[in-house]
Amino acid sequence: MNRALVEFGALCALAVLLVGFVAVARRAGGPRADGGYRQRSSLLDPSVLRAGVVRWTTTTDHRDVGLLYIAFGTLAALWGGVDAMMMRTELLTPAADVWSEATYNALFTTHGITMLFFFVTPVFFGIGNYFLPLLIGADDMAFPRVNAIGFWLLPPALLITRAGLPSQVAAQVLGALVEGPLVDFFAALEEPGIGWTLYTPLSTVTANPQIDLVLLGLHLSGIATTVGAINFVVTVFYERGPDTDWATLDIFSWTMLTTSGIVLFAFPLLGSALLMLLADRNLGTTFFTVGGGDPILWQHLFWFFGHPEVYILFLPATGLMSLILPKMVGRALFGFRYIVYSTLAIGVLSFGVWAHHMFTTSMNPRLSASFMAVSVAIAVPSAIKVFNWITTIWDGRLRMAAPGLLCIGSIGTFVVGGVTGVFLAAVPVDIFYHGTYYIVGHFHLITVGIIPMMMIAASYYWYPLITRRWYDRRLARFQVGLLVVGSVVTFGILLALGFQSLPRRYANYPAAFAPLQQVATVGSYVIGLSAILWLYNMIWSYWNGDPIDDADVWDLKETGQFTAEWQWLEGRLEREYNVTPTEPESVRPASTTDPERGSPHVLADPRGLVRSVLDDTLYGAIGGLLGTLAMSGVLFTAAFIGVFDVAAFAELAGLVGLRESALAGYLLFIVGGVTTWAILFRAIAEFLPGQVLVVSGLSYATIMSTGFMIAFYTGQSGLELVGYLGFVLVAHWLYGLGLAGTIRYAEYRRTVGE
Amino acid sequence: MSDVRAAFLTYGVPFVGSVLLAVGIAGGVMGGYALFQEQTDRCGQPELSVASAEETERVREGFTPAGGPNVPRLRFADLSPAERRAVEAGIEDPDTEGTVEGSFPNRDAFRRGVLVVAENETRYVTLATDDRCPQVSPLLLPLGLAAGLLGVVGVLTPPLYRRYLAFERRQREDG
To answer: Given an 8 Å threshold on Cβ–Cβ distance, is B130 in contact with A748?
Structure first.
């Protein structure tokens, strides 16, 4: 399949859907969150557009820059996510028959680079930009303009790094129209398939010029990250408000400070290594050639950046966990000081473990043993965090809101991800599992099992602060469930594949692994769905969520956790809208089951259902007929597909002594649906599950379907059997809906008539 | 009990719906793609990657003083016509792979990588991709679509159910 066009088409479709949905959500929105009237100016109005573009491209306000970072990171995540979905689609079948092997290689390369460099780091820097100054009482970041520059270096960096895709599309489109050097130029640039780690000698000798652009793009993103990190460090040191000193600095700021410290030491090294690789590729230097510096030198330099990079991504997530979890359980963070120590310890130790990625490169055993020791040791501060989180939960009152559920879910997935990492730290285990799916499962349980989960938890936790509206809380809980279950299924299965030594980074695999791979792919689609639901919730609620009444939306005053950023919101609400600060007794619960707020609740069963035998029979028959006809549609669809045999109707006719023909059997089936089964439903409806008649109809149909499945079974097996069972069940549900819906409607007409 | 029912309808049914939708996407995509490939004949043609003369030299020399691997050789004249055409296409345009359209007797040799000796040049040639056609059950597409549709209904159950309850409530008030 033409990967470039498919992926580009998918991205364009996503973009169109996103823009369309924003327009719909905006149009559907009522008054503004502050109660004022919304200006109904079109977004396409040139003056509005110009003002918006100028405002967002020239802003230096830390909150604006933070939102820009988050928006950029989200778009990058969608791009990298499309890569991931395409990769998992390839793995549905053992052969490389969806994408070619070369395309698959490019997919896992670009997925890794996009997610690590352009999704996670920017989003955490965005959250840091928005909230760190609020948390420490600063007016803004230390260097606002540098902050904006740090952000604006990222979009070109992403475009340069991922130029292979648009240039391939350009080559194909232009190539269909003309020929010439321009087409050749675009065709020469294609997404590289060398892995995100860019290992030499492959990355040195592969001729694809897009690799050079990747190196330049990554270097630019490294500059952007370093600039941002300098800003964070200086802000925490010099911009703290009068009420914030080192003793009272919040945990998220500590982790952002540590992360920024790691960035300052790690990213310059990446830049140097990238420039050496560029020189090897283009200037004939021999930094990473055999007989020169050696290809293994690249691995040393890369992982001296790369492993700290893992902690650059991971530490802000732990900071968010340490900040949000206490609010969700109503208890202060247990062992605050030790969590700070563990953060600093991870920051230092992260630079001492890089060679555990290289245990299989014939290292000196003494050296690998020492790296093994440090790698095992770095698990200790991570474990300190986990135990402290668990102790924080202990005896607390867990609020079952989306951020709380995400905290609980991520502790679970992170523990599994972390413990599998401890195993890998041991040299003999690593020798066995190196290069298998076990590695992929391990690091995805971290990179999905805590990092995006905490981003999403933060997005829900602070959504009222940013937008002054609530997100859809039921949908959020559901989305969290999908994300956690999808992650556990997908990456748990990758661990299982690794246990069986299936090597990673292959488009083909032995057929014996197909069932596990297919389940993992379905799990990954569930993760994709959850990401889309999150995006839907964020956008829709921005214009349509319930406006907040006051700043204490999480009842934080009750437990003395009404922290600086919420105080900032409260002050703002009071200043701008005269909202009086509330007392704990008067706040409303963050999560409600009050039916008036739209929570599902079940009505009482309609009374007086049976009033007139004649009417009941008539409506039951009409309902039965409608239901049976709807059922027929599904069954004939099933027959057309080939999972249902209409000959089963003939058997039915024979059973009651009629001529064995499908038509006679079908007519008998209609008669049964109109009379016997409809009357039986009228008789036992009140004893069936479901207090609403329509739900009772569904229950009834579900029970009936089991008999039908047995009676009409004609020897289907495998996929045919799955299809047969599915179609029979859905057909019966339609029958139940038709039957009960008609009766309910008749009941209504009769009641109104009276 | 009503809490359990509410939770089941709000979270349980949409969850099952999401899983069905995910399964439906997997089945629908693979089933649809297999059908598409079958209809358009766009698969089943292996592609050969032909290295440049410099790259070939590098392969032969290897990365160590001990020299490169011992790569078997094939004479250009011994290749089948389809293989020859593919190798020629790869030589002409180094950016593309040559497609083997026809008999492919040396498939195993190319899979391992061979040196093809043409008149005065030796080039390293490997099988870039088998380009196999997807082999899936024809039931996969309809079942995938059906599962996807059912999944969408499952995901939309909570709002649909709430609207239905509101309709019931209105009816009661009318009555």
So the answer is: no
